[in-house]
Amino acid sequence: MLKRVFFSMLLLAALTPAFSQQTDSRIIVNADQGEHTISRQIYGHFAEHLGRCVYGGFYVGEDNTDIPNTNGIRNDVIKALKELKVPNLRWPGGCFADTYHWKDGIGPKADRPTIVNVWWGGVTEDNSFGTHDFLNMCEMLDAEPYLAANVGSGEVQELIDWVQYVNHGGVSPMSDLRKENGREEPWGVKYWGVGNEAWGCGGNMTPEYYADVYKKYATFMSTWRNEEGIFRIASGASSGDYKWTEVLMQKLPPSLVEGLALHHYSVIDWNNKGPATGFSEEQYFTTMQRALHMEELVTRHSTIMDKYDPDQRIALVVDEWGGWYNVEPGTNPGFLYQQNTMRDAMIAGTTLNIFHNHADRVRMANLAQTINVLQAVLLTDEEKMILTPTYHVMKMYNVHQDAQLLPLTLQNVDYELNGQKLPAISASASKDADGNVHVSLVNIDAKNARTVSLTVRGTEKGSVSGTILQSANLSDHNTFDNPDKIAPKTFRGFQKNGDQLTVTLPPFSVVVLAVE
Ligand code: AHR
């Protein structure tokens, strides 16, 4: 590593042209050295039966005449998520998944039993949004479904039946039942989570015990593979629980697992999370410390995985990530409804850069959660819907989906507060199928604009354009009365000289540059 940094410094010195002005930070993108693809699946989302994510967020009911919908799914939500290019959607939880019995959510809606959502607010749900509703909605979104199975309070047979119900094309009790319920062709669901947070709400298991449970479920699931095969994701570690990853990698036979999960939230303190808006710079700084910790987490979990899986066959799936604050005053504490500010844009921009730069191992991720819950991309209030700063970042960044990751060297500058330091600049770059290069840059510094000397070498492309997300205050956010306060704008803060750019990033801003 040190050797690499030293080499990078030499290279930087050699490549810095005489005209270059003094800048805070230097980046060299190597457009001719890409090896790995940034899987579009890292742009995934998460829809749990939690608060107003599913009910009121995605689904308003087929009989709703006030909110335009298609089969009960909000039209505004479908449009916004399609534009975002959501590649996959995880459902029905979360903690809820380990209480969910899928057969309660099929068949005539009037006949479905209710379920009390014991994890989230204790509300009674009528199961009107079930397997068909979710999978048909994924088809409308052009997103791959990712089903999280109930291991905590379910049975192996229940999961085998679910796989058979959604994936089997021939004659079988479950495929016949599916047809009776109006769906002839199987959906062909590839992604399956085998439990959720098995160390916590999924059953408080030890990794050794869960490994055995997992093997049993994974073995029988494979009986009902669809043609492309299923992708089984083992419940993974919470943040820095490296032992969990070590034990699972040691105990799970490679033939039974395709992905291993990791959950990490940017939370200041679980007992005192702080407000979602109107926070102090100290709170912002701590949130960013937690967010940037993702770099160490994916590095160390990947290193453990490399030991057992040197060919990197098993994906690291960060299927829950994002900022977690106190709920908005006056809302149900069990519903986890929070506003979304420029701080969240900083979390999104830096986290996605980290995922890109670890594209070899991080091949899927899911932001928690899509609508009205935690770091949402959409917020709804009855018939109104707004796009959050996080939505805008994910949309600006979607040019990286399935593009080739380009290695870069970054000489950084610090963002300092009260004697503590964080790297101010975060960056990643990729080359798309047409050879166009995209560089995403984040300046998390709350007070200072930062200049970056950016060299994109190894490409013939040279026409540069950019988009920026910025605002006057860190706490700024979109509201139902002012939905476009924060929106991407054309970025003009760069000067070009040959293959070198001098880019000025305003405080807490996200920029995506295109070199075409
Ligand atoms: O996303 C909210 C909750 O956080 C999920 O249900 C659970 O998996 C995690 O603890």
Measured distance between first and last alpha carbons = 32 Å
Average of pLDDT = 94
**Strands in their spatial order, largest beta sheet:** 2-5-8-9-10-11-12-13
What ligands does this structure carry?
alpha-L-arabinofuranose
Low-pLDDT runs of 5+ residues are 1-20
- Count of individual beta strands: 27
Instruction: Give a quick account of the main beta sheet: strands, pairing sense, barrel closure.
Output: 8 strands, parallel, barrel
Rg for CA atoms: 23 Å
Number of helices: 10
Q: Can you describe what's shown?
A:
The protein has ten helices and 27 strands. The chain is an alpha/beta fold. The strands form seven sheets. The chain has an eight-stranded parallel β-barrel with strand order 2-5-8-9-10-11-12-13, surrounded by five helices. A six-stranded antiparallel sheet has the order 16-20-21-27-23-24, with helices on one face. A five-stranded mixed sheet has the order 17-1-22-26-25, covered by helices on one side. The protein is globular and about 70 Å long. Alpha-L-arabinofuranose is lined by residues 48, 93-95, 196-197, 320, 368-369, 374.
